[in-house]
Amino acid sequence: MSFILHPIDTVDNISPEDFTAQYLKPRRPLIIRGLTNNWPARQKWTPEYLKQVVGNKIVPLYDNSKADPAKPINSAAAEMPFDE
Question: Distance from the CA of 1 to the CA of which of 37, 49, 65, 70 falls in 20 to 30 A?
């Protein structure tokens, strides 16, 4: 068994019509560079802002260790306060 690899097209911008016709309908991948550059979240969602909003809520931490059959699937490796 072998994979047939093809380069993925990359664009800086594309019209919705061209995207639909050339990529969405034929189910072809596309990389759109800089798509989020003008999103307000890029400036607003700083670590300091998120700490202010979430505070010390306890959140799960996950790692990339191998699955342990003795533990539930997708269980957290640890927990800690978000602001830490």
Answer: 65
Cα–Cα dist 57/80, whole Å: 8
Query: Which tens digits make up the pLDDT trace of 7-43?
Result: 999 999 999 999 999 999 999 999 999 989 999 999 9
Contact 76, 62 (CB under 8 A): yes
Q: Which single residue is written with the structure tokens 């400036």? A: 43
**Count of Cβ atoms closer than 10 Å to residue 49 Cβ:** 12
Q: Smallest Cα–Cα separation from 16: which of 37, 35, 42?
A: 35
Give the pTM.
0.55
Q: Are 82 and 57 in contact (CB under 8 A)?
A: yes
